[in-house]
Amino acid sequence: MNPRALLLSSAVCVFALAANGATSTAWELSGFNELLKGRLTGLSLDANGRLEPGPSVRWAASLNQPAIWSIAPAPDGSIYGATGHSGKVFRITPDGRSSLIWSASQSEVFALATTSQGQLYAATSPNGGLYRIENGRAEEVWHSTAKYIWSLAAAPDGSIYLGTGDAGRVYRYDGKASTTVYYETGQSNVTALALSANGHLYAGTDPNGLLYDIARPGQATVLYDSSLPEIRSIVLTPDGTLYAAAMGGAVASRSTAANTAQQSATTAVAVTPTVITVTAAADAADAGDQAAKPAEQTKPAAATTTTSTAAATGVTEISGVEKSAIYRIRSNGSVETIRSSKDDNVYSLLLDGDALLFSTDDHARIYRYAQNRISLLAEPGSGETTQLLKLGSDLYAAVSNSARLLRFGPAGSAPASYESQVHDASSVARWGHFQWHGAGSGVVFRTRTGYSARPDSTWSPWSGPLTDSAGSLIPSPPARFIQFRAEWAAGANAQIDSIAVPYLAQNSAPVVRSITVSSVVGTNANKSNSAGASSSTGAYSITVTDTGEAPAASSSNSASQIVSRLQTTQTQISWQADDPDGDKLVYTLYFRAEDENGWQLIRSHMFENTLLLDPDVFADGRYFFRVVASDAPANAPEFAHETELISTPVVIDNTPPVVTVVGAERSDVEIEAADKTSTLRLCEYSLDAGTWQPIESVDGITDSPRERFRVHFSKLSPGEHLLVFRVYDSAGNAGLAKVVLR
Question: How far is the C-alpha of 665 from the C-alpha of 713, rounded, in Å?
C-alpha cells in the first residue's frame, strides 16, 4: 500500500503510523476547506475550521413554487415573496404562515420593493409592468416598454427606480403618475440597483459587468468594470464603501425561465462580444488576506446595439473558470476582490453590522465576511439562496428549487448535525478507535460502512453513539467505504476542529502483467579484445577457377588486417507489474529449459523491472521465464503478498545459420543453409559489393530450418566477380558464404 505522509496543513490528511503498506492508517479531517466538503445542518464553520452550533431555522415556509426571486419587508413584520414561474406574490407572517396575495398575468415577478410609507411594488416580466399592491389588489402604475424589469430600488421620497432589459435603461417612477428614463447605460440589462444616502444611484449591468455611479438624471460614471458579465447585487456601508457581487449566466437563466413559462422560442444574438480574462480564485478561508486585483480585460465599455429579444439561452458552465466574485470599492475608488470562486455563484449581499453576508447556489450556503476572513454562517440545504433580509436580530433567506422562505433564530437553539464525505480506504479495512478534538460538550458521533461509493441500502446502519473523544472503538463492520455523522443536541456548545478515523486496510496482492524477452544491440568489450580469435562465424570462402586447379597462395610482408564487429546483442528480460495499493515491489527472476522441470535462479532482490544478460549464458533452445513480485518492502511479513507469472516459450537463438555452397558454376551457383534452432526467413546476395538482392528458396517459400537457394547469371562481364550470400534465421542471426567467380 502507498506510503502516506502526515500533512501539516488544514487539509484532509491520510497518514501512515509506519512508513507504508499494511499499517495502521488514519483518515483525518481538519481545516475550513476540507470540513466544508461535508453537509452542515444548523452549524457554522468559522474561518479557522471549527464546527460549532450556528443559527437555527425557526421555520421554513414552503410556497409550492419553483423559484423565489425577491423578498421585501412589510410594516407589520411580515415578509413579501415574489416567485416564478407562475408570477405570484405571497405574504409570509412572522410565525411562518404563507398566503397568496396576488397572481400576475406574466410568468415572473423578478423584483419587489416597499417604500418608507409601507407601499408594496412588484415588477413583472416578460413584457410586464410596475404594480402597486394594496389591500390584496394590484394596480399597474406603469407598463414597461422594456421586456424585463430586473431590479427595483425605493427612494425616501416614495419614488421607485427600475432596472430594465433588454434595453438596459434605468427608469424613475415618481410615486404618483409619471415614469421617465433616468439613465441609458448602453448595456443590455440593468440587473442591480442601490441608492446611497447622498442620493447617488448605483446600477449594475449585463453583459459587460459594468457598475455605474449615477449622480443625477443622464449623468453617470463607470465605477468599476468587472471581468464577469453580470453585477448581481450591490450594498452600501455608512462610510461610503460599496460591495458588489458579480457572476455569469444569471440573466440568461432567468430569461430562459421567463420565456419557457410564456412558451416563447426567442433567442439572443450578441451584437457586441465580450472578451474576459479570468484570474484564479483565492483560498476560501483566507480570501480577504490577500486582495486580488481584477484581471486586465479587453472588451467594449458598453453594448451599443441589441437585438429585439432578450437573452434566452441556457447557462453553460465551464469547470475551472471563475463563476463569481465579490468586490469592495472604497470611497477613494480603490477596488479589492475579497472573494473569487470557480465553484459557486453569489446571488445576494447583505450588511450585518460590520460584517457582510452573502448567499450562493452551492447547498444554498450563506457566508459571513468580517475582518478579512470568510466563514460559513449557515447551510440551508439543497437549492440556491437568492436573497437575504435582516429584520431585527432575525435573518431571512429566500431559497429556490423549490421556493421557500427560511427564518433563522439564535445559534444552538435546535439540534444540529454534520455529515462527512464518504472516505475510500482503497480496500476492505478494519476500523480502529474514532477520535476528535475540540472544546465544549453535547456532541456524539456515529459511523456507517459499505462497499459502494455512495451509501445505499447495502450499507450498514448508523452505529450507536460514540462519546469518548480520546477513542471510541468504531463498531461498524469492515468495508471499503466509511462515513461519519456528528450530532449536536439543542443547547450544546461543542466546537470540533479535527476528526480522525483510524483503520487497517487489507493489503492487496501485486499483479505481474507481462514478461518480454528481446534482443538489444550493445558493445561487447570482451570480444573486441580477442584479436587472435577467428573473425568468421560460419562464413565460407570458396574460389572457383576455369582450370580447376587450386589457386596460388598469396603472400604479404605486412601483418593481416582484420575487420571485426564490436557490436553484439544482449538478451533483455523485462516485465510489467504494479500494485493496487501503490506499494514498492521487489522481484525474483527464474528460468528453465523446455525439457527441464526445475527452475534456476537468475537474480533475486531486484527493484528494477529489466535485466540485461550476455546471450552466451543461454544455449540455443526454448526457455520459460518466471517473475515473482512481492510487496514485502511495504508490508509486515504476515501481510505481504507474492504473485508470479510464467512466460510463454521463448526461443533463444544466438547461432547464425550455416551456409554451404553445394554447386558453383560461372552462371549458376547453389547454396544450402541450415539452422538448428529456428526457421530461415531471408536469403539475399550481393554481386561485386553491390546492392543486396533477395531470392527465395528452390521450393518457393523460405520457411524451414533447412533450405536451398539458387542464383543464375546470364550475362556476366568477363573477369573475376565476388558473389556473397547472406541468410537470416527467425532470430535475426545472419550466416555468410562467398564465391569468387572466374
Answer: 10
